[in-house]
């Protein structure tokens, strides 16, 4: 009989677990795992984590336990890797061994390993190869996509002008503008910013990213059998995902009816052609399920991180008006009233440094997506077992004081030499590194430069009278700024 009182239920489950541990003992560890904070039974180290922003605790723990240490989440042991040298060693020097994905319960229950972000093994390799090829074919790094970004930046400027210098929240407008770029690659179209379909898709992505990064989701992933009784986080994510998948399936069903193999219009068309070509075998990769999750993954990844970076950028320009003026001065000198193009970037070292520092300071994916070992691996004096979850902590890289002298401050001079020339930093890896690095990195870089310079070319951004500018990141899978309003003062 199941206890009706939730607290009684939790205590009963915990008591049962203690009995199992008492009679059967802890699993003996045949591996040489790195040291870490001493775990408690059942909860592991959860009691010492900042559950809203766990990356802060993880970064702090590295100061005591070193760049590679063991953290226990519930009963699961996790390897945390901190600092540029150690993270590069894992993701680049040992790229194959650390290229796996662990099964994150909340996501795996829904995706079953489809798509690209949380896929593994041969399915992931097939989807990544296809994605990189399709992104190149449909514009990434080419003049055609640059023209689309320029056109979209004009729409965004028009939208900002419509507020006539009055305070407004830029969240949906920037999300919509950036979304239209990846949508052009996926679907060969753009949406108006007020289009109900686009607004619904943006709402789904933003809600799911917030839910997936919440403390409740962390607890659900750690204790799924227990937490499903106390939270509906998995159901909320599932319902949102169902709505998005319905839109995607309807879209590619229509595209299939119109498909011309000699005139592939977008990534979905390209996938459908591959689907036709794939010979029947036990391991099919170009399935409807993979297409559905791949499009959802690319829409999410192609929208959220870039739009979040731009929102950090505008917030930081309001916070530091003297930096905003220097950027605008360089824009006037190099571009004037002409349209910005990617080629201008090499002539604009200060603007380039500011954009890099926005990405570094904004710390958009603070935890990084989790990795897993694909085999037993000797790493820095430790023997790690196949399949163990690994967190290559991006926060610890972007805020590594050995590489960024004022890591806790917004300081564009991190990327400038004494003569004002742009300087590359090896520890600047906001897109991660190695075999799991962001497939759309080049597209994102182009978007950030064109959108950012176009906006600062047309407006000066100021905080509304009396408003406090908070640089504390919000809670979520993506480290976005807290909601804020701004005034976009048009240039005459």
User: Share of helix among residues?
Assistant: 40-55%
Which regions are unreliable across 5 or more consecutive residues at pLDDT < 50? 5-11, 18-28
- The helix-strand sequence is HHEEHHHHHHHHHHHHHEEEEHHEE
For the biggest β-sheet, the strand order reads: 1-2-6-3
Mean pLDDT equals 91
Oligomer: single chain
Largest sheet: 4 strands, mixed
Tell me the radius of gyration: 24 Å
Structural class: alpha+beta
Describe this structure in words.
- With 492 residues, the chain is of the alpha+beta class.
- The protein has 17 helices and eight strands.
- A four-stranded mixed sheet has the order 1-2-6-3, sandwiched between helices. The chain has a two-stranded antiparallel sheet with strand order 4-5. A two-stranded antiparallel sheet has the order 7-8.
- Helix 8 packs antiparallel against helix 11.
- The longest helix is centred in the middle third of the chain and has 32 residues, at 288-319.
